[in-house]
């Protein structure tokens, strides 16, 4: 009896090991035996004399489309081919369901399908990881993947950091040597120039995944309280006055209303916008690639004091919030002014629910003396310096960043605003032009601040913690900024030592 | 009881009888009070789970949460579960968790028992020093060796492989210690008798010792299974491929990235909790006995 | 002892030992690879720093830096505070529940199963649920408190202050909720191991309930308490999963939930300073060692002195 139990345990052990072997990701099957089309090869030989030597003899074109392809293929060079591993962040793994509307959301394999229809010689393998913060977020995952050289192409919010540490490929040569390259992103492209070892000015990435931060207000609550709607470019003073008026019992419904909102877990971004409006600047990138960061300035202090003052107009517990207020975009909403409206939250509901954008209005983010204001959100797509298959990786990057299909997919799957210029955007998603506040929504990014290079680094977390402490009252605004400054200085010093 | 009272004087006997009689009279009342207190506690223990279920079945929980306590959703719907099942590869996560837990636990039991047997019944040079080394490993928490272990697994090419979640946990100081303590209490005669019959040490271990080790093995099995199933920090490091996620890791990742979607998040949690709860209810007798045992033996 | 006979004796001894070595070999190989090597490596890493992707010896510089680091000290304080609060609540509460359960005739198993339930489910799942339970506006707890007329409502995870309604209190409630069943069951096993004769004798000697409890129950539960305090301290010192689920990278709000292990994790995998993180790990190890030795000495002193 006992031995039978042990026998079954042993069987379980063996079975489990077998299962593990099945469970490990199988190494990708070798690409199908290349079908070398004689016509193509001959053409290549005829038209390019020198380059034929370097051309890999693996033009893996499926047989059925060969006839068409021979016409399309540029006779100069065999198309780049092979496996390109791509790290993407926050895409749905499978075809899934929108968590609010229940509408279908295309899974990431749709993106792969679209790409490979266009570039059948390249096997784009997507590794998709979720957003989120901290240990379970994209940050540590990206770090380990780039260290392990697991992927070639990266959706990489922290590109400047990795560029600085020498992990990224400068794209300037690719842009120069690619006759097909067109800048479809406008000024967005230059946002991704940054310092690297040996060269102070590199093109680290192409704009890829877009979004913006706008200010929403609830037109119905404004009406209930008899308050003038927000102006298209609201000022701090206007927001403070109106928020103060609308905090309390709603004169129509009797419900408790709040004038103002902030997402505690990401308060740093909102704070940067406010500080910018007070004329603060975070510092600069020095010639040697190090940063000088000044949190402890009179402008930042004024901004933090203002934010602490506004705390009393926000619902209790906003400090623990990591999203829009509960009931946002529904009849249950009780917050009148909702700053830092994120594209991911509002764009798709606005498009799919007619009339919603009439109650929840959208205006520009608060602007500073230079006419800029609001976080620049477009994340770049980058190439790892260690990538073994750079020509194919470049094709993948260009398509992900610049094609109408890929940008439309970003909208369909995550409600992202396209990063390509307005004309192409309208071409990709015509509905966007019809929104009530289309101007503010589509134009906000043109007024965004230049991207913060420290956006995914320690200085951000130090400041974030300090603002939380100031809002909770455990530190005065002055103490909070001193603490953030000290931690940031310590970190900068450490970084400098490490790269000496 | 009667033995005890036999030698007592009549007076003493009377007092004792009184004591027990009053005890009996208060018994009913006392039982009710105890039941009441424990019942309130049990209610508080279950409430978060009940609330999780109620919320996860509410269609509007992803949009706006009600501001009153509800133990039955006002708008019952399977929507959140539909979202959860479509958006998270749960069967795959369950399979991963099951494989890791089963293999690591079976291995842990085997190596613990084998080594425990050697230290309990074996006679060999350096035994006490070697056992001291085992005890020393107890003093090294996982977090302390986590970073080099992470690099080691990477070097071995085991990232995103379930073996990475198993190999480091096959042998553990606590298991060896517990098994040695238990096997020491098994009479030597049994072992000697088998030895006289010409059985090898491994045969003795397998045929004689192991069948007697039910209680500590059950206890260790429960502990190991809980450790492996619930571990977060190590899978977080060793696994980045979603298809290799364990349930716990998938839940942590999905939970954090869902932001405001309370209903979906709680449906995920419910789907992760319910199967393990069913297993628990089926095996509760063994699990609870096992837990009590590890406490006593420490 | 005959010296010339020793080699033979030893040889025989060693030969007899061989089979036992074979039995313990797999375990020791696993220990060497997965325990000894990484531990030694952690110590080594803690004495170096990375300079342009090369390791450079810096001695104890990381330790000096850690001890002067405000973030590390606050993580240390949080860990100690959360651990102490947890043990001070969960052990007495576990004892009370175990005593009640020990006297219960009806359905004791039902209560065991229910109280132990949170321990079975992953701490991450529970923390996920409690993140919503503690939500200040519509969370289960505040909705309940509102129904009871509490005003103003606690802010729980949105309040990093040192008080009984803030994030640390919430984290402690969560920990007690999860662990209570385990502490109750272990204590109950301890209670049931106390020989009934001791109580009978006490009754004969005229002891009342409280006297019996104080003079018999508590002293006899000493080994149980020692076990719970030692394992509980170690667990509290390495707390991670639930707080990370609640408080994100920095143990927010305002680092009020950041423990040593979270600090270690953040240093290693967010700031990419594996050397400083290794030094943190070594310090954590030393603290655990110190706490365990202290607990042993303090709690077992009576036993030791009795034996000596």
Helicity range of the residues of chain A?
A: 40-55%
Low-confidence stretches of chain A: 1-75
Largest interface: B-C, 100 and 107 residues
CATH topology of one domain in chain B: MetI-like fold
Named at the architecture level, the CATH assignment of one domain in chain B is Orthogonal Bundle
Chain-wise SSE layout:
The complex is a heterotrimer of chains A (500), B (298) and C (308).
Chain A (H helix, E strand, L loop, with lengths): L1 H22 L14 H10 L18 H7 L9 E8 L6 E2 L6 E2 L2 H11 L3 E8 L8 H10 L5 E3 L3 H6 L7 H6 L15 E4 L2 E5 L1 E5 L3 E6 H7 L10 H10 L2 E2 L6 E2 L9 H11 L5 E3 L5 E3 L4 H13 L26 E6 H10 L3 H4 E4 L15 E5 L6 H13 L1 H11 L7 H7 L9 H6 L14 H15 L4 H22 L2
Helix pairs in contact in A: 4-15, 10-11, 14-15, 15-16, 18-19
Chain B lengths: L1 H5 L3 H47 L22 H9 L2 H32 L5 H12 L3 H14 L7 H4 L6 H12 L3 H9 L4 H9 L4 H17 L2 H6 L8 H11 L4 H36 L1
Chain C lengths: L5 H40 L2 E4 L2 E4 L3 H7 L2 H33 L5 H13 L2 H11 L6 H8 L19 H26 L3 H9 L4 H12 L1 H16 L3 H7 L12 H10 L4 H34 L1
Antiparallel strand pairs in C: 1-2
Summarize, please.
The complex is a heterotrimer of chains A (500), B (298) and C (308). Chain A has 500 residues and is α+β, with helices and mostly antiparallel strands.
What does this structure look like?
The complex is a heterotrimer of chains A (500), B (298) and C (308). Chain A has 500 residues and is α+β, with helices and mostly antiparallel strands. Chain A contains 19 helices and 16 strands. The termini of chain A are far apart. Chain B has a domain at 88-257: MetI-like (MetI-like fold, Orthogonal Bundle), CATH 1.10.3720.10. Helices cover 75% and strands 0% of the residues of chain B. Chain C is mostly helical. Chain C has a two-stranded antiparallel sheet. Chains B and C meet through helix 2, helix 4, helix 5, helix 6 and helix 10 of B and helix 1, helix 3, helix 4, helix 5 and helix 6 of C.
């Amino acid at each position: 009896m006992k031995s039978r139990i042990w026998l079954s345990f042993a069987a379980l052990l063996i079975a489990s090991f077998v299962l593990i072997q099945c469970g490990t990701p199988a190494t990708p099957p070798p690409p199908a035996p290349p079908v070398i089309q004689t016509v193509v090869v001959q053409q290549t030989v005829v038209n390019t004399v020198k380059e034929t030597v370097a051309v890999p003899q693996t033009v893996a074109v499926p047989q059925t489309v060969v006839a068409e392809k021979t016409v399309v293929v540029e006779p100069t060079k065999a198309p780049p081919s092979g496996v390109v591993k791509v790290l993407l962040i926050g895409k749905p793994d499978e075809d899934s369901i929108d968590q609010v509307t229940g509408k279908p959301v295309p899974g990431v394999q749709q993106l792969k399908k679209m790409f490979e229809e266009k570039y059948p010689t390249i096997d784009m393998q997507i590794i998709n990881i979720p957003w989120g913060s901290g240990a379970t977020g994209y940050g540590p995952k990206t770090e380990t993947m780039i260290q392990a050289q697991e992927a070639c192409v990266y959706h990489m919010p922290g590109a400047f950091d990795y560029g600085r540490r020498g992990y990224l490929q400068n794209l300037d040569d690719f842009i120069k040597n690619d006759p097909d390259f067109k800048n479809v992103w406008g000024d967005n492209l230059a946002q991704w120039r940054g310092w690297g070892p040996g060269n102070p000015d590199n093109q680290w990435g192409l704009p890829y995944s877009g979004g913006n931060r706008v200010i929403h207000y609830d037109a119905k609550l404004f009406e209930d309280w008899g308050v003038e709607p927000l102006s298209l470019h609201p000022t701090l003073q206007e927001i403070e006055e109106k928020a103060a008026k609308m905090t309390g019992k709603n004169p129509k419904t009797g419900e408790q209303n709040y004038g103002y909102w902030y997402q505690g877990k990401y308060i740093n971004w909102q704070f940067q916008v406010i500080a910018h409006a007070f004329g603060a600047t975070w510092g600069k990138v020095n010639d040697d690639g190090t940063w000088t960061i000044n949190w402890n300035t009179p402008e930042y202090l004024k901004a933090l004091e203002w934010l602490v003052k506004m705390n009393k107009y926000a619902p209790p517990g906003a400090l623990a919030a990591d999203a829009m207020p509960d009931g946002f975009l529904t009849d249950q909403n009780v917050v009148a002014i909702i700053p830092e409206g994120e594209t991911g939250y509002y764009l798709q509901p606005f498009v799919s629910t007619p009339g919603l954008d009439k109650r929840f209005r959208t205006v520009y983010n608060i602007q500073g003396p230079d006419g800029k204001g609001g976080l620049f959100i477009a994340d770049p797509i980058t190439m790892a310096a260690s990538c073994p298959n750079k020509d194919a990786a470049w094709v993948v990057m260009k398509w992900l960043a610049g094609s109408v299909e890929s940008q439309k997919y970003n909208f369909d799957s995550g409600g992202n605003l396209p990063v390509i210029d307005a004309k192409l955007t309208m071409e990709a998603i015509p509905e966007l032009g019809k929104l009530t506040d289309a101007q503010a929504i589509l134009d906000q990014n043109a007024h965004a601040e230049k991207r913060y290079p420290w956006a995914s680094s320690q200085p951000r977390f130090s400041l974030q913690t300090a603002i939380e402490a100031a809002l909770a009252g455990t530190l005065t605004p002055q103490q909070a900024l001193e603490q953030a400054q000290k931690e940031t200085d310590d970190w900068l010093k450490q970084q400098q030592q490490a790269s000496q | 009881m009667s033995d005890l009272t036999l030698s007592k004087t009549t007076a003493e006997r009377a007092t004792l009888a009184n004591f027990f009689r009053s005890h009996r009279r208060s018994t009913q009342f006392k039982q009710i009070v105890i039941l009441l207190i424990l019942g309130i506690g049990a209610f508080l223990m279950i409430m978060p789970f009940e609330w999780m279920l109620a919320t996860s079945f509410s269609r509007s929980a992803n949009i706006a949460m009600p501001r009153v306590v509800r133990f039955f959703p006002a708008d019952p719907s399977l929507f959140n579960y539909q979202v959860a099942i479509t958006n998270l590869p749960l069967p795959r996560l369950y399979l991963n968790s099951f494989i890791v837990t089963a293999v690591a636990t079976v291995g842990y039991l085997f190596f613990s028992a084998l080594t425990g047997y050697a230290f309990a019944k074996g006679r060999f040079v350096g035994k006490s020093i070697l056992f001291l080394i085992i005890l020393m490993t107890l003093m090294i928490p996982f977090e302390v060796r986590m970073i080099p272990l992470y690099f080691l697994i990477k070097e071995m090419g085991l990232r995103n492989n379930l073996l990475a979640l198993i190999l480091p946990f096959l042998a553990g100081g606590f298991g060896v210690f517990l098994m040695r303590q238990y096997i020491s209490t098994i009479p030597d005669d049994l072992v000697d008798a088998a030895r006289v019959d010409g059985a090898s040490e491994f045969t003795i271990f397998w045929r004689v010792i192991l069948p007697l080790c039910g209680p500590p093995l059950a206890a260790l099995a429960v502990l190991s299974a809980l450790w492996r199933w619930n571990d977060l920090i190590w899978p977080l490091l060793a696994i980045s491929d979603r298809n290799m996620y364990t349930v716990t890791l998938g839940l942590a990742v999905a939970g954090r990235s869902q932001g405001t979607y309370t209903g979906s998040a709680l449906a995920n949690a419910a789907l992760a909790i319910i199967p393990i709860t069913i297993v628990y209810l089926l095996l509760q007798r063994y699990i609870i006995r096992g837990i009590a045992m590890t406490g006593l033996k420490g | 002892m005959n010296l010339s006979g020793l080699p033979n004796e030893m040889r025989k001894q060693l030969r007899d030992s061989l089979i036992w070595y074979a039995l313990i070999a797999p375990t020791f190989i696993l220990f060497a690879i997965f325990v000894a090597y990484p531990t030694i490596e952690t110590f080594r890493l803690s004495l170096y720093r990375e300079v342009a992707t090369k390791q450079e010896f810096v001695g104890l510089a990381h330790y000096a830096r850690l001890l002067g680091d405000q973030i590390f000290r606050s993580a240390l304080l949080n860990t100690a505070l959360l651990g102490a609060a947890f043990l001070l609540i969960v052990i007495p509460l576990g004892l009370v529940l175990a005593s009640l359960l020990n006297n219960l005739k009806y359905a004791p198993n039902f209560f065991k199963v229910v109280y132990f339930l949170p321990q079975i489910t992953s701490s991450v799942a529970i923390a996920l649920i409690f993140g919503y339970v503690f939500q200040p506006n519509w969370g289960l707890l505040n909705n309940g408190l509102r129904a009871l007329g509490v005003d103003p409502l606690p802010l729980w995870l949105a309040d990093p202050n040192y008080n009984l309604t803030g994030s640390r209190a919430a984290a402690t409630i969560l920990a007690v909720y999860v662990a209570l069943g385990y502490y109750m069951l272990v204590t109950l096993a301890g209670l049931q191991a106390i020989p009934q004769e001791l109580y009978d004798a006490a009754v004969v000697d005229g002891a009342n309930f409280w006297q019996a409890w104080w003079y018999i129950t508590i002293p006899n539960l000493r080994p149980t308490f020692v076990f719970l305090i030692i394992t509980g301290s170690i667990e509290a010192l390495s707390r991670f999963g639930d707080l990370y689920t609640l408080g994100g990278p920095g143990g927010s709000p305002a680092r009020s939930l950041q423990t040593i292990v979270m600090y270690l994790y953040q240093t290693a995998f967010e700031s990419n300073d594996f050397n400083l993180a290794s030094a943190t790990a070594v310090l954590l190890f030393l603290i655990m060692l110190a706490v365990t030795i202290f607990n042993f000495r303090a709690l077992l002193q009576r036993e030791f002195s009795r034996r000596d």
